[in-house]
Amino acid sequence: MRGPIALGTIRTSCVLTLRLLVQAGTLLLIARILGPEQFGGFAGVAALAVMLGSFTSCGTHLVFVSEISKEPARRIQILSYAIPCTLLCGSLLLAIYLLVCTFVLQGIKASLTILLGIGVAEMLLLPLLNLPVLEHLALGRIARSQLLSILPLILRAVAASVVFLWYSDDPLLAFSCGYFVASVIALVVAFATMPARWPHPSVWRLPSKDEWRQTAGYAALTATAYGPSETDKILATWLLPPAIGGLYAAGSRVIGAVTLPVIAMIQSALPRLFREGSKQSGSTERLLKWIIAATLGYSTVLAVALWFIAPVFPKLFGLRYDGIQQMIHWLCLAIPGMALRISAGGILMAIGKPWVRAGFEVVGFFSLIAASIILTRHFGIIGMPLGLVFSEWNMAVIGIISIVISRKMSAGRAE
């Protein structure tokens, strides 16, 4: 039973290894170009855009992959409201993003052009790109789905390379324009590779009451999933000096990137979990245990490996990032918790418990804010990574307990 998922995980991991290399290359280039102070501000703005962008589809993209995994014929019916919903919500969130960056994050010096380049990409273009990506995933074309999803990242790496090689007077402005162009090109390619055309705008509509009810839980869990992953970069711009905030943002991106194989495993298992998640079969129980065990084993090994190679990162990022080694050492403690949180969240979503996943991630979101504020006051700059460690492990433990309780309750009802 595990064979097809393991094979799919290996194939997807190969694609995600490419994604890791691309993200790492882009991170190193931009970090070197901007320096820790300006990079910290950019990371905060980008994190806010990603977090708000997670609301854009209102959960319709997860309804889409769930339903298409079971019944591909429902494609047009769901797309007819998923597309306009994404465009409408994305436009509203873009306005909120610009207001927050202008009046709340005043310490981050970014022009309107920079904010628009990042905001339009994250809140309109990439959410639309996500629909064909998930359609390939639902149809079992996992590697193809991943290749399409990393295309904008590859194009961003190209943009970063251009800025790095041909230095601009305003490198952040130049890269933000490349950020936008990369998303446009990726969306055009996605349109050209879809299994079939999208529904004509004449049949677009807003979701019905029942459809809103169906998407609500998925919308909540999507938003809460991005909250803990991105909020720490925003908090770092408030709680830490600019240069230290840049060191934290760079280190946080490093440990986030190394969890990609866990994401590959969950994505490979999602179609089967969506089909069988409500069943109480022994094979499903074994699958869930296998996912959790593999996640814990992989992430522990990876955290230890990253701890020992941390001295390499000051050389990779440049002399201005002296101190990133110590930051990565503290952040390594969060890697197993982060990986388990990702796995637990994916499982809860697939077995029909989106509100449970949203609940434990809301707890993680607020625990991250509280722990980061308290710990930075008492321990200084290491309080920020310690706050992330506390939040990730808190979510991991609650998530796994929630899975166990949910399965026992389902088994009791089945009897």
Report on this structure.
- The protein is mainly alpha-helical.
- It has one domain (2-414).
- It has 15 helices and no strands.
- The protein has helices at residues 2-53, 60-70, 75-103, 112-138, 142-165, 171-193, 209-239, 242-257, 260-276, 282-309, 313-317, 324-332, 335-350, 354-379, 383-414.
- Helix 5 (142-165) runs antiparallel to helix 6.
- The two termini are 25 Å apart.
Summarize the structure.
With 415 residues, the chain is mostly helical.
Which whole number gives the mean pLDDT?
A: 83
Sketch the major β-sheet. Answer: none
Give the SSE string. HHHHHHHHHHHHHHH
Provide the number of structural domains.
Answer: 1
Based on secondary structure, the structural category is: mainly alpha
Q: Can you count the beta strands?
A: 0
**Strand residues, percent:** under 5%
Low-confidence stretches: none
Number of helices: 15
**Quick one: overall form?**
globular
Helix content: over 70%
Cα radius of gyration in angstroms = 21 Å
Cα separation of the termini: 25 Å
Q: What are the defining features of this structure?
A:
mainly alpha; 415 residues; 83% helix
Summarize the SSE layout with pairings.
Blueprint: H1 2-53, H2 60-70, H3 75-103, H4 112-138, H5 142-165, H6 171-193, H7 209-239, H8 242-257, H9 260-276, H10 282-309, H11 313-317, H12 324-332, H13 335-350, H14 354-379, H15 383-414
Helix pairs in contact: 1-3, 1-4, 1-5, 1-7, 1-8, 1-9, 2-3, 2-4, 2-9, 3-4, 4-5, 4-6, 5-6, 7-8, 7-14, 7-15, 8-12, 9-10, 9-13, 10-13, 13-14, 13-15, 14-15
